[in-house]
Design a protein that fits this description.
Elements lengths: L1 H23 L11 H16 L6 H6 L8 H31 L9 H32 L4 H6 L1 H27 L5 H20 L6 H19 L5 H20 L5 H17 L2 H18 L3 H6 L12 H20 L4 H25 L7 E2 L13 E2 L1 H20 L6 H27 L6 H23 L1
Antiparallel strand pairs: 1-2
């Protein structure tokens, strides 16, 4: 009974901390009435105040439990961690304010409505998520160890809460500033940035890291919103919401089928939203085909690959690293398509090449490692061991060719192109050659430790895009 009361006491203090954390977000109400220089100074004062706040102060006693016998050291650690977390949030706001002040009269100005949105996401959004998460933690601790798995499964709903509350509060923060400052920013832009910033915040919050979320979430969401606000590109709210719901549902299905973890879910959602709004739904379907084929073939003969030490870790579940290393080139090209429609055909062929490379490389790795024939090193053509960076097999090369060809055939099946042979030929060639660039990089730069496996994938997908783009320019 005493233990349960202790848990309730702990949760009561946790709720107090989260309420104070959320209350910090009310700072955005002052934005229309105070200059950015004064806001910068105020955020600096908050950082200094939290830095020198004594552990035995009244606010620390209010926010943290009274020490039990023998627990003073643990209490001190909790206070230090809590103060550090609060200070990190204040530092994040100070950094954003400092950037805004320094670039105030330049083309790359960081707007206050972006800072307000980032603060709303990292205060109201994360506090709402933590409320839900700690409530579930209390329930699971009460029912014993069997509830720990249920708590892990509750991470997704709390992250969705962060996403939803973040979008709503970031939207109202933008509307608040737009009303008082009579800004020319459109409603479309406010909604667009609120969604992009909130997905980014949920993504950073879901990534296991030693970096405090009070640094990564506000800075990550703020930088992403700043980047896309500078493009001046937005879409109607209904299109943005459709892209968000569609991407989240597909990411959830991947999460439930253990193809992706939570960070990969939000990474794919962010990619999906941006690709859909800057290009069209079919572009995301192409990328989705890569994820499905990659996830499916990861499970192909998984036990055999595991027995020889060549299986994907975590049962083949993809993380945010897998998503971004294979899809950043696709995202860049989709954004360029929206900004430079006059180069649409060239960008489309480059996009097909990068997705074909990612698909071909994944199939070559997952299928090629099951080959019973001895692999050869791509740079020397000499026999080598399976799984060595740069090792290739005939079976793997065939799989890469077929994987790239699948991406080339899809636009034909969906009636997106006129010259079917040209599209299939350029896409297949770009994907196949890009896959072998991946192998060459693995045998050279990765083997020397210059690039990681994710770095190799990142470079190779850009190489596949360039190859397909050059082939298009030569042939057409």
């Amino acid at each position: 009974m005493e233990g349960i009361l202790g848990l309730f006491d702990e949760m009561e203090h946790e709720y107090r901390r989260q309420l104070l954390h959320a209350a910090f977000g009310l700072l955005i109400l002052l934005f229309p009435f105070i200059s950015s220089e004064i806001l910068l100074f105020l955020s600096f004062l908050v950082v200094m105040g939290l830095t020198f706040l004594p552990e035995d102060s009244r606010i620390c006693r209010y926010l943290y439990m009274k020490p039990l016998p023998g627990s003073r050291e643990m209490l001190s650690d909790n206070i230090n961690q809590g103060l550090r977390s609060a200070k990190n949030l204040a530092i994040s706001v100070f950094i954003l304010m400092l950037i805004s002040s320094l670039l105030k009269f330049t083309t790359y100005h960081l707007p206050l409505y972006v800072i307000a949105g980032a603060i709303a996401i990292s205060t109201f959004g994360t506090s709402a998520a933590n409320f839900m998460r700690h409530r579930k933690k209390l329930q699971t601790l009460r029912i014993g160890a069997a509830g720990e798995e249920a708590y892990e499964g509750y991470l997704l709903p709390s992250s969705i809460v962060l996403l939803g509350v973040g979008i709503i509060t970031a939207y109202f923060a933008g509307i608040w500033l737009m009303y008082w400052q009579e800004s020319a920013v459109s409603i479309n832009m406010i909604v667009f940035l609120a969604v992009i910033g909130s997905i980014t915040g949920a993504l950073f919050e879901s990534i296991p890291s030693n970096i405090d979320n009070n640094l990564s979430v506000p800075l990550g969401s703020g930088m992403m919103m700043w980047l896309f606000s500078s493009f001046g590109y937005s879409v109607p709210p209904q299109q943005m919401i459709f892209a968000l719901v569609f991407s989240i549902i597909l990411g959830y299905l991947a999460y439930r089928t253990k193809i992706a973890d939570l960070s990969a879910l939000f990474s794919a959602a962010l990619l999906g939203v941006l690709i859909i709004v800057f290009s069209e739904l079919f572009w995301f379907i192409l990328l989705l085909t890569f994820f499905i084929l990659g996830g499916g073939f990861t499970k192909y003969k998984y036990r055999y690959k595991e027995s020889i030490g060549l299986a994907q870790s975590k049962g083949g579940v993809r993380s945010y690293e897998n998503v971004f290393s294979n899809s950043t080139a696709a995202l860049v090209l989709a954004v360029l398509y929206g900004i430079y429609p006059q180069h649409a055909e060239l960008i489309i062929f480059a996009y097909l090449g990068t997705v074909a490379t990612a698909t071909g490389d994944t199939l070559a790795s997952e299928v090629g490692t099951t080959a019973h024939a001895q692999p050869i090193m791509i740079t020397t053509l000499k026999p080598t061991k399976a799984g060595v960076d740069g090792a290739v097999t005939v079976l793997g090369e065939i799989a890469a060719l077929l994987g790239a060809m699948i991406i080339g055939v899809l636009p034909v099946l969906f009636g997106k192109v006129d010259d079917a042979f040209l599209v299939i030929a350029i896409t297949t060639a770009g994907g196949f050659l890009g896959t072998n660039v991946d192998s060459i990089l693995g045998a050279t730069l990765q083997k020397k430790g210059v690039l990681t496996n994710s770095g190799v994938n990142f470079v190779a997908t850009f190489a596949g895009a360039i190859i397909s783009g050059i082939l298009y320019l030569i042939i057409v």
